[in-house]
Amino acid sequence: MSSPQRADRNSAASTSAVTSLRERKKAKTRRTIQEEALRLFAEQGYEATTVEQIAEAAEVSPSTFFRYFPTKEDVVIQDDYDPMLLEAIRAQPPDLPPLTALRAAFRTAFESIGPEELDQMLARIKLTTSVPALRARTVEGLFATIELLAAAMAERSGRDPRGPAVRTLAGAVLGVILTALFGWVEQDGRTPLLVLIDEALGYLEAGLPI
What is the pTM of this model? Predict the structure, then answer.
């Protein structure tokens, strides 16, 4: 006869396995919706593509689409990179200077992104720079990213995340990252994104010499 403790452990393990499977299925559905949306946008244009068409291509209902993406804009704007970057920043040794830690964190985060995902990122950035509605939503996301970077840097240094020094650093970092992203789009992805980002951060780390 199994003990109550063993039964509890088995039950907990079973619940964890079910939860993990559910999360994987949700991630797969989310990824499929986004992939099909980007394919349709490339084939027939952003404005001409409807949520219903995306849902049909992804083999989900429109209501399921809206559970994952509140609007059509969100299927382009949303990604998982901010949490991934935050985790990479927190993993850096505490004695590293702020920009050195950020540069290493970006390397860690972007090295984990595969070629197919990078192609999707390139397509999404092209859309956000060419569709007015997406440009407006992108600006909102930029403010959120500045706050995330500021919070991460403040956590490392014990400084106030709302202080001008921390926010200025976060804004400067985001500025050079945007420059790298725009260059990547202009080159149509010929130069690896990580190379462009690391070069831009290195330029900032050196004090922006001209």
Answer: 0.79
Are 132 and 178 in the same domain?
yes
User: Nearest-CA neighbor of 120 among 75, 186, 68?
Assistant: 75
Shared domain check, 201 and 107: yes
pLDDT tens digits for 163-190?
Answer: 999 999 999 999 999 999 999 999 999 9
What is the C-alpha to C-alpha distance for residues 128 and 137, in angstroms, rounded to an integer? 8
What CATH number does residue 126 fall under?
1.10.357.10
CB 33 within 8 A of CB 57: no
Return the minimum-mean-pLDDT range out of 2-6, 130-134, 144-148, 189-193: 2-6
Whole-angstrom distance, CA of residue 99 vs CA of residue 101? 5
Report the 10 Å Cβ neighbour count for 26.
12
Structure confidence at residue 12 (pLDDT):
47
Please compute, for residue 117, the number of CA atoms within 13 A of its CA located in the half-sphere on the CB side.
10
